[in-house]
Design goal:
Layout: H1 2-19, H2 48-52, H3 57-66, H4 71-82, H5 101-104, H6 129-132
């Protein structure tokens, strides 16, 4: 009886490993999808923002009423004051001519705060413990 159970366990164990690999049937044919509308990609027309570097008048005004500190609203507000919408101006790209932060920063060592003989240049602050309310 024991040998029958043992042979049954060995037979089941070996058959599962043989059944684990699927047979190599030929792959089914691939049918490509028909797309009546082709992908547009970069052939889309430019948006108002891309063409003129500013939001539309109505969109910017709504953004200004909802959240005046948003980038869209601030750009709209600046272009309204410039008269870009009234004059139907083209693309406006502001240019700023001022030095860069790394050009303004002074390079070099710090100025010494102590005199040459080793004494501190500024007197040390005197703290009155009784006046500050802290007891030692």
């Amino acid at each position: 009886m024991r040998s029958a159970i043992l042979s049954l366990v060995v037979l089941v164990g070996m058959s599962t490993s043989a059944a684990a690999h699927h047979p190599l049937w030929p792959a089914p044919p691939i049918w490509y999808r028909f797309e009546p509308i082709p992908p547009l990609g970069n052939h889309l027309p430019w948006s108002h923002r891309q063409r003129l570097n500013r939001p539309t008048y109505l969109g910017g005004k709504i953004a200004f009423l909802i959240e005046p500190s948003s980038q869209e609203a601030m750009s709209w507000h600046e272009n309204v004051h410039r008269g870009a919408y009234r004059r139907h101006a083209g693309r406006i790209e502001p240019m700023y001519f001022y030095p860069k932060p790394w050009e303004v920063l002074t390079a070099g060592p710090r100025t010494p705060r102590a005199s040459d003989d080793g004494e501190a240049g500024l007197p040390a602050p005197q703290i009155d413990i009784q006046a500050s309310g802290q007891m030692p």
